[in-house]
Design a protein that fits this description.
The protein is 92% helix and 0% strand. The protein is mainly alpha-helical.
């Protein structure tokens, strides 16, 4: 490459073209992988939300059963 500024600019633009083509290929690969993984990720998020709901239901049930058991034990000790 010569020291001519125009040839330097053209050389840099050629390098940019190669870099941009590489970025475009990576982006297309990412989009393909994203299309393949989106359903699995959506299902995983749905399971996670469902598990949060299920844990809240189990916790509420345990609190209710504990309260009823407490009333039962209190009634056994105090009502005779």
């Amino acid at each position: 490459m010569s020291d001519d500024p125009l040839s330097q600019i053209i050389g840099r633009m050629d390098k940019q073209d190669v870099i941009l083509k590489d970025i475009q290929e990576k982006l297309l690969t990412h989009l393909v992988v994203d299309k393949e993984m989106k359903p699995a990720l959506d299902e995983l998020v749905a399971l996670w939300r469902g598990s949060k709901l299920l844990s809240a239901i189990i916790l509420s049930f345990a609190m209710i059963v504990g309260s009823i058991w407490g009333v039962f034990v209190w009634a056994n000790d105090h009502i005779k």
